[in-house]
Each structure stands twice: as C-alpha cells, then as structure tokens.
C-alpha cells in the first residue's frame, strides 16, 4: 500500500479532515466549477485505488435527476489523458470511462441506471488496473471490465462532476510483481 498520500487539488480546494479522507468542494453547475479533481503524487503502472464514497449533494443532470457523480481516477497523465470510474455518469449506476485529448470524455463500459444511485448512501468502490485490464468493483464484487492499452502509467486520484462527495478510507495499492520459477 502507498502510505504517504501526497496530493494536489487541480481546481478548487478540497477539505482534508484526516488521513485518507477527502471532501470535494460544494456542487456547482457553473462551467468553471463543474469538475473537481484531486491527484496523488506517485505514478503507478499497475495497482488499485479504493474508497468509501458518500454522495452528499449534487446539481441536476440533463434529465432533471441529481448528477451524483463521484469517481476514482487511474493512469492520469494530464487533464486530457486518464481513465476514471464511479457512479452515475451517462445515465448509468456504475461506469468506466476514458479521457482523450481535447479533452473528450468517452464512456467505455456502464451498467444499471442513474436512478439507482442514492444521495447520502456510501458506496465501497475499487478500481483495479493491471496491464491492459481495468476493472471496477463495488463491495469487492466485480461490476465492469475494460481492456484498453492507451495509458500505461500515471497517477491515481479522485474526481467529482457537479457533485459534492466524501471519500473515506482512501487506499492506493501498488501491484506486487509475480515471480515465475
């Protein structure tokens, strides 16, 4: 496990009430405040990031439902190059997406309905990344798998979109190499 979680807030300031706990800024629909990102310092090729995510507040999405999007970020190489996965984007319950130069946000895998996500409920999410495979788990149950080789190394982070969320028990694990005899 990566124990020294050095981090940088890329937009507005997040609250950091204690080790491994981060609260994103208040939800906003303003163009310059919709997305909030916090990136951790260490770059990893393979590993995982996990957190207990509580969706606190949100502004309305296109269909009038609350946005309620909170994400785990992996292989961040810049604002237009990373993978992210979490709750409630693209009218889904859970998703895995990719950011391309532009930036362009591309849904790669999703499951369920946005209406299944509830405010003030805590979701235990883990995003594993190993080689070309990226998988999202809720409560240690695999939800989605993506095969993609675009970004091989990068930083982990936390992200919200039009949502205020509390990320607790944040852990980043570096994958342990396997020895073959």
Helix content: under 10%
Radius of gyration: 15 Å
What is the distance, rounded to the nearest whole angstrom, between the alpha carbons of the first and last residues? 25 Å
Helix-strand string: EEEEEEEEEEEEEE
Describe what this molecule looks like in 3D.
This protein has 181 residues and is mainly β. It contains no helices and 14 strands. The protein is globular, with a radius of gyration of 15 Å.
Please render the helix and strand layout as text.
Layout: E1 7-9, E2 15-18, E3 21-23, E4 35-44, E5 47-58, E6 69-78, E7 81-87, E8 94-100, E9 104-111, E10 122-130, E11 133-138, E12 141-147, E13 154-161, E14 163-174
Antiparallel strand pairs: 1-4, 2-3, 3-14, 4-13, 5-10, 5-14, 6-7, 6-13, 7-8, 8-9, 10-11, 11-12
Summed up:
This protein is an all-beta fold and 181 residues long.
Structural key phrases:
181 residues, seven-stranded antiparallel beta sheet, 0% helix, globular
């Amino acid at each position: 496990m990566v124990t020294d979680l050095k981090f940088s807030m890329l937009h507005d300031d997040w609250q950091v009430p204690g080790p491994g706990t981060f609260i994103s800024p208040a939800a906003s629909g303003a163009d310059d405040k919709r997305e909030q990102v916090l990136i951790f310092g260490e770059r990893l090729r393979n590993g995982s990031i996990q957190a207990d995510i509580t969706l606190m507040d949100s502004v309305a999405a296109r269909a009038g439902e609350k946005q309620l999007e909170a994400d785990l970020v992996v292989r961040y190489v810049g604002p237009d190059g990373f993978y992210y996965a979490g709750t409630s984007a693209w009218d889904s319950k859970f998703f895995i997406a990719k950011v391309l130069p532009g930036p362009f946000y591309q849904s790669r895998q999703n499951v369920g309905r946005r209406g299944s996500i509830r405010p003030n409920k805590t979701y235990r999410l883990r995003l594993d990344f190993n080689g070309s495979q990226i998988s999202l788990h809720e409560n240690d149950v695999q939800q989605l798998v993506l095969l993609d080789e675009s970004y091989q190394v990068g930083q982990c982070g936390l992200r919200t979109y039009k949502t205020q969320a509390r990320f607790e028990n944040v852990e980043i694990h570096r994958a342990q190499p396997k020895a073959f005899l």
